[in-house]
What we know:
- By secondary structure, the protein is mainly alpha-helical.
- The protein has helices at about 5-35, 40-70, 80-100, 105-115, 115-135, 135-145, 145-150, 155-170, 175-220.
- It has one domain (about 5-200).
- Bound molecules: protoporphyrin IX containing FE.
- Protoporphyrin IX containing FE binds near residues 53, 56 and 89.
- It is a multi-pass membrane protein.
- Its cofactor is heme b; FMN.
Amino acid sequence: MDFHPNPRQLGWIKGAIFALALVPFVRMVYLSVTGQLVEPLEFITRGTGDWTLYFLCITLAVTPLRKLSKWNWLIKLRRMLGLYVFFYAALHFTTFLWFDHFFDVQAMWKDVLKRPFITVGFAAFVLLVPLAVTSTNAMVRRLGGKRWQWLHRLVYVVAPLGILHFWWMKAGKHNFTQPIIFGVIVAVLLGVRLVWRQRQMRAQQACSCSMPTARTGSARG
Ligand code: HEM
């Protein structure tokens, strides 16, 4: 289906996604302040962790969806979705620092170093920081497109770390179903990029192989 929104429609789409992405957060706040949660700390820590992972998958899905549908405008949603990954990850980390350690940074460090699943989650969060900081147009200009692109490939490290964190956490409970599902989703989303990149390189190689012939041809001509 061919769909190319005009700037006004794109504005509405962006606004709707912005509002929808806030729904889980508003729901968590609402349920907490109205005292409807039996285990509020667990609910919020897990809810924010889940939504970090969902937005990570949604953000990684933008490029494959754009390529398959040829809806190039989808790329204009990627920055906002990526910032929502950071938003929920920051909330997730803050709940951990607050509810688990009452903002005692030293105790938090001990925990980060002691429990491997926390170490991995923390590493993923730390790697998300430069991505969020450099998400503005001014930073893209300052870094230059190539360097910015390289830096933003960190997301290919963040996603497997996020899965490993989830896997490790659930391993303690011998519950692997969800980590396997998300592991497969992330593997597919990263795998298609590899396949496309290889095809692109092969096409470039084929193109550069035919170049000398063309040059020879023109020299002769
Ligand atoms: C990109 C970064 C991260 C992602 C994608 C992520 C994702 C998740 C997910 C999906 C869960 C399980 C939720 C559920 O049970 O449904 C979880 C739990 C948890 N995460 Fe993270 N997380 C990240 C970073 C962090 C960081 C930085 C910390 C703390 C330093 C952390 C600490 C925890 C804790 C304490 C739990 C709950 C464990 C439990 O209830 O037993 N995570 N995370």
